[in-house]
Design goal:
Oligomer: single chain
Largest sheet: 3 strands, antiparallel
Shape: elongated
Order of helices and strands: EHHHHHHHHHEEHHHHHHHHHHHHH
Strand order of the largest sheet: 1-2-3
Distance between the termini: 49 Å
Number of helices: 22
Helix content: over 70%
Radius of gyration: 31 Å
Structural class: mainly alpha
Number of strands: 3
C-alpha cells in the first residue's frame, strides 16, 4: 500500500480556513448520517433482494415503473446464466420469505399481492433513504444530489482517506488562489466529476457518494500548479516499510492512469467511481490552467498579500520563482546575497531551506532549518519553531545549538509531553557535554523521569551523570545530591515492591 505523508511545501501564508471548514463539514455530516445509513441499509438491501428474486421467478407480475427500471438495470448487469439460475427457482431458499414464496408459487393473486407489498416497501425506503435521496443516483438524479453526494461517505476509511488527500492538496491551493476562487473551484469540480460518472453509467441505480471526485480535481490542479514539488510517500507491505519522495509530475499521472485502467476493466463493479476520479482530475487540471492564464491567480495573490499586510522582499520573491522553475543554485545565490545584509529574515530562510531540500543538499538544509528555528524562537513564534524542530529531527538532524535545544525541550515540557521532553533533554546533554546547558538538561530529565514518568532508575542515571560532569556545577550541587537521594529511595522502593 502507498500512502502520501506530506509534500515539500507544507507552509502557508495564513490559516487555510476554507480547507478546515470543508473537512469539518464532511466530518459533521458523516457523524450525522453514518449510523442512520447503517440502520437503513439492511432493510433496503433485503427489500431489493426480494424484489429481484420475485421478478426473476415470475416476470409476468406487474410492478411500478421505478421497480421495473431497477430490475432492468440489475438484469442488464447480470450474466445470462446467473439470471436464468435465479429465474429457474432452483436456488436454495435464502430466508423465511423465500420459503413463503415457494409455498404460494401456484397462486398468482398471492404472488401479485406480495409484489405489490414489496413495491410499496421499495417506494417508502426510496423516499426516506439517505443514499437514495442525497447520494447521486444517475438513473434518477436530483438537483441537490449533485452537491450533497460530495459530503456523504460510506465508512471511516472512506472518510479518513478523502480528508487526508483534501488536506494535502487543498490547503496549498487555498494559499495560492485565496478564499473565493478555491471553494468555487472545489464545488464546481465535484459537480463536474459527478457528471462525468453519469456519462458512463447513465442508467445506474447504484448511489455514488464521497468527496473523491472534487479531491481528484484538486490533485489535477496540484499537478498543474506544482509539477516539480516532491511528495513523500510511505510504502508498506506486511512488516516492510519504506519512505521515498517523488515529484508530482511522475506520481499524479501514474495515479490517473491507474484510475483509467480501473474504470476501463472494472467499471463500477469494484465499488469505486473511477470515472468520477478521472473526470475530476482532468477538469481540475484544465481549470487550473485557465485560472493561471486568465490573471485571476495573480489578482488573488495581490489581495492575499494586501490582507495579510506583508509583502515579500523582491529578492525573496525572485528566489521563490526560481524554486518553482527548478533553478535552485540561482535561487540560493540570490538569498545568500540578501541574507548577508538581512541575516534575520525569516521569510528568506524559509525559502532557502526549500531550495536546499529540492537540491538534495541535506547538510545545508539542516543548517537553514536550525537557523529558521532560532529566528522563530526569537520572534516568540513557538508553534513555528516547534515545527522547524520536527522538520530538523525528521530529516536526521541531531545537534542543535545547546541554548536553542534547551528552549525547545522546555516547550515540550510545557505541553506536558514529558517523555519527549526527557528524551530531548538527555540527547542535548549527550551532544553538548561541555556546555552549561547540559547540566540543566540532566537535572530536568532527572526531575521528569522521577516525578512525571515514574522511572527512578532513569532519573538516577541523569543525576549521577550531572554529578560526574566536568562542567563546573557547584551552584547545582545540592540539587544534584538531593535528586540522587530521591531517585535511590524511589528505585529502592520499586525494587522492594517487585520482590515482595
Amino acid at each position: 500500500m502507498l500512502i502520501p505523508l506530506r509534500h515539500e511545501n507544507m507552509e502557508g501564508r495564513r490559516w487555510p480556513v476554507i480547507t478546515f471548514a470543508l473537512i469539518a463539514l464532511n466530518v459533521l455530516i458523516f457523524f450525522g448520517t453514518h449510523w442512520k445509513i447503517e440502520e437503513q441499509e439492511p432493510q433496503r438491501v433485503k427489500v431489493r433482494t426480494h424484489v429481484i428474486l420475485l421478478s426473476a421467478m415470475h416476470p409476468e407480475l406487474k410492478m411500478p415503473e421505478d421497480v421495473a427500471k431497477f430490475i432492468d438495470e440489475v438484469k442488464s448487469k447480470a450474466s445470462t446464466s446467473v439470471w436464468n439460475q435465479v429465474a429457474s427457482n432452483s436456488h436454495k431458499s435464502s430466508d423465511a420469505w423465500a420459503a413463503h414464496i415457494r409455498a404460494i408459487e401456484e397462486d398468482p393473486e398471492q404472488l401479485q399481492t406480495e409484489m405489490d407489498t414489496l413495491a410499496q416497501s421499495f417506494e417508502e425506503i426510496r423516499r426516506t433513504s439517505i443514499l437514495d435521496n442525497y447520494a447521486f443516483v444517475p438513473a434518477h438524479p436530483t438537483a441537490a444530489s449533485y452537491l450533497t453526494c460530495m459530503f456523504l461517505h460510506a465508512g471511516w476509511l472512506h472518510l479518513i482517506g478523502n480528508m487526508w488527500f483534501l488536506w494535502l492538496a487543498g490547503f496549498i491551493l487555498e494559499d495560492r488562489w485565496g478564499r473565493v476562487i478555491y471553494p468555487i473551484f472545489y464545488l464546481v469540480s465535484g459537480i463536474a466529476a459527478t457528471l462525468f460518472h453519469a456519462m458512463f453509467f447513465p442508467s445506474s441505480l447504484a448511489p455514488m457518494l464521497g468527496a473523491s471526485g472534487a479531491i481528484a480535481a484538486l490533485m489535477g490542479a496540484f499537478l498543474v500548479c506544482f509539477p516539480n514539488l516532491k511528495i513523500e510517500m510511505l510504502w508498506f507491505a506486511l512488516v516492510v516499510r519504506r519512505r521515498f519522495k517523488v515529484e508530482a509530475y511522475w506520481l499524479l499521472p501514474i495515479w490517473l492512469s491507474l484510475e483509467i485502467f480501473g474504470g476501463t476493466f472494472s467499471g463500477a463493479g469494484d465499488g469505486v467511481a473511477h470515472w468520477a476520479h478521472v473526470g475530476g482530475f482532468i477538469f481540475g487540471a484544465l481549470t487550473a490552467l485557465a485560472i493561471s492564464r486568465s490573471g485571476w491567480e495573480q489578482k488573488a495573490n495581490a489581495v492575499i498579500e494586501e490582507k495579510i499586510g506583508w509583502s515579500a522582499d523582491p529578492a525573496v520573491t525572485q528566489a521563490s520563482e526560481m524554486l518553482e522553475s527548478g533553478r535552485f543554485d540561482e535561487g540560493i545565490a540570490v538569498l545568500q546575497k540578501y541574507l548577508a545584509t538581512k541575516p534575520d529574515a525569516i521569510d528568506a530562510y524559509a525559502v532557502l531551506r526549500q531550495l536546499y531540500w529540492r537540491k538534495n543538499d541535506l547538510p545545508a538544509h539542516l543548517d537553514a532549518t536550525a537557523k529558521l528555528c532560532q529566528l522563530n524562537l526569537k520572534a516568540q513564534d513557538v508553534e513555528a519553531a516547534w515545527q522547524d524542530f520536527e522538520e530538523y529531527t525528521n530529516v536526521g538532524g541531531d545537534s542543535l545549538p545547546a541554548a536553542t535545544w534547551l528552549e525547545l525541550c522546555r516547550i515540550a515540557e510545557g505541553r506536558q509531553n514529558y517523555a519527549r521532553a526527557a528524551e530531548e533533554y538527555q540527547a542535548l546533554a549527550k551532544a553538548h557535554p561541555a556546555e552549561r546547558q547540559s547540566i540543566l538538561a540532566l537535572l530536568a530529565a532527572g526531575r521528569l523521569s522521577l516525578k512525571q514518568l515514574g522511572r527512578p532508575a532513569d532519573a538516577l542515571r541523569c543525576y549521577q551523570a550531572a554529578a560526574a560532569s566536568k562542567v563546573p556545577h557547584l551552584a547545582w550541587e545540592s540539587n544534584i545530591q538531593a535528586g540522587i537521594k530521591s531517585a535511590e529511595l524511589a528505585a529502592g522502593v520499586t525494587i522492594a515492591s517487585v520482590q515482595s
